[in-house]
Amino acid sequence: MRIILTTSKMKWLGSAFLLAFALTLVNCGGDDESPALQATVEGKKISLKNAKIYLANEDTYNDYTYRDYFISDGVPNNSSPWSLSDYDDATFFIAVELATKSVDGLSSGTYPAIDNWSTATGDKIAYLYYEVAVPGGDPLEYDNPSDVAGPNVVVKGKFDGDDTMTLSFSGNMVNDDTEELVATNVYFSGKVVDIR
Questions:
Q1: Average pLDDT across the chain, whole number
Q2: Where are the extended beta strands (E) located within the chain?
Q3: Torsion angle (degrees, nearest 10) of CA 184, 189, 190, 192
Q4: Could you give the CA distance from residue 57 to residue 78 in angstroms, rounded to a whole number?
Q5: Secondary structure of the chain: what % helix, strand, coil (to 5)?
Q6: How confident is the model at residue 61 (pLDDT cuts 50, 70, 90)?
Q7: Residues 126 and 98: beta-carbon distance below 8 Å
Q8: For a designed S-S bond to 66, which of 91, 99, 189, 190 qualifies (C-beta 3.0 to 4.6 A apart)?
Q9: Cβ(196)–Cβ(79) under 8 Å?
């Protein structure tokens, strides 16, 4: 059997091939392997999709230079928003203090979360605290554990206003009400809003 391809058949086959190739590229490019912007606390997922990260303070303590970053779906109503009540329309806030002894300042890397900075010796350290709203009640509060190692905060990107910063950590935090360790997972990426 002989197959004779006319010019119109060749154009049609060429177009079909290009369409199939383009669809393959779109499907491959559509796979987003980055994690979801979310927090998981005690098995409950909290979307961080509409959250922002705020830079609120820079100071020094015990030879460390540190900065306070706050992630929330609300808008801070003051320049030191360390409580859920310091935000308008917030359902959560996550405080992340990052500190370094480096004269070059903060840089991408891993920051172990520790409870007591006065005994810290590493070049990079962090402190974590967050609150989650409870309808009709007081917010749930979570803190660095003092008896065991806290999560390692992995930071990528840059640290100033309008820079994109990515923060992630996974590990145990303490429920301040029950004083029990609870599993926590956080992944956030966004532009830093400087409110200092």
A1: 86
A2: 38-41, 44-47, 52-61, 64-72, 75-76, 87-88, 92-100, 109-112, 124-132, 140-143, 152-157, 164-175, 181-194
A3: 70
A4: 12
A5: 15, 45, 40
A6: very high
A7: yes
A8: 99
A9: yes
C-alpha count within 13 angstroms, C-beta hemisphere, residue 185: 11
pLDDT digit string, tens, across residues 103-153: 999 999 999 999 889 888 899 999 999 999 999 999 999 999 998 889 999
Convert the pLDDT of each residue in 147-180 to its tens digit: 888 999 999 999 999 999 999 999 999 999 999 9
Query: Tokens in use for 123?
Result: 């070049």
Distances (CA, A) of 140 to 27, 159, 195: 41, 28, 25
Instruction: Say how far apart CA 120 and CA 53 lie, in whole Å.
Output: 26
Among 65, 98, 72, CA closest to 83 = 72
Segment 23-53, tens digit of pLDDT? 333 344 444 455 689 999 989 999 999 999 9
Q: Are 159 and 192 in contact (CB under 8 A)?
A: yes
| Separation in Å, CA 39 to CA 7, 58, 77, 131, 173 | 58, 25, 23, 12, 13
For 168, the token pair is 């992630």
Per-residue pLDDT for 17 more than 60?
no
pLDDT of res. 8 = 53
The residues with which 52 forms a beta bridge, in sequence order, are 72
Confirm if 181 and 48 have CB atoms less than 8 A apart.
Answer: no
Cβ-based burial of 23 (10 A; exposed 0-12, middle 13-18, buried ≥19) = exposed
